[in-house]
């Protein structure tokens, strides 16, 4: 593919043309004729990935929200975790609640269990006991619905040093890795193309060619790409494990700015040792002590 192309083609079953910026047009090419039908796109929502090889899900677009003072929280109640075949809990009675569209920070000593907790939230392993759910609250601050499960497809996770898991030769292939290869409807293709455009714009990757080798990007741009991969499916909760680790000062500042913008759209839970740099973004924070005991500790 030429770097000067303004459109790139994703071959799923028909043709989706994705501009690096601007309006997406999706062309369904029929086998019986050479005519091309352009479909006007509308906003859509895709669900989230959890894992490099398990990152494509799809769910229905959400209904438009009516402005009200109702809100929801991601809640963790009495969670214990003991890996199968072991004698000791890695996490003990973990409890916390994270308001939607806020940023929660978990910090603590190495080996205390922070990554283990993130893996439970992302659905990569299951708590031995306790529950993880979404609770909606009414204007009076009381629960107004039964708690909802937190399905894995509503959670995105960016692992520590995500660039180590890049597999593809181009940015486009890296972002679309895991997308379904079977024939899908035009609606699915619209959602994919829109999600891709939105994700690329929201992490500031629109100045980078989709033909670029992901391994050749700077540290900060690799981190943006890892975020974009998760954001294509617009998760409700985005989990980041040490998002600033291994970056130079400029890239760290860029990622902090990016997280500030993302917080307007979704809920973020960050594990980090970089408390000073993140403190201006943090709404709630907890220290994890050895043995996986979580305690509220404001910044
Ligand atoms: N499957 C497992 N079986 C037994 N022990 C495990 C398992 N997974 C992790 N551990 C142990 O659980 C503890 C917590 O690990 P975890 O990676 O969650 O810590 P962390 O707080 O993220 O540390 P760091 O800050 O270094 O990333 C460590 O002692 C680790 O060796
Ligand atoms: Mg860890």
UniProtKB/TrEMBL annotation:
The keyword Lipoprotein does not apply. One of its GO terms (cellular component) is membrane. Transmembrane segments: none annotated. One of its GO terms (molecular function) is ATP binding. SMART domains: AAA. InterPro entries: AAA+_ATPase, ABC_transporter-like_ATP-bd, ABC_transpr_CbiO/EcfA_su, ECF_ABC_transporter_ATP-bd, P-loop_NTPase. Keywords: ATP-binding, Nucleotide-binding, Transport. Pfam families: ABC_tran. Residues 74-299 form the ABC transporter domain. The keyword Transport applies. Coiled coil: none annotated. PANTHER family: ABC TRANSPORTER I FAMILY MEMBER 11, CHLOROPLASTIC (PTHR43553:SF1), HEAVY METAL TRANSPORTER (PTHR43553). This is Abc transporter i family member 11 protein. It comes from Thalictrum thalictroides.
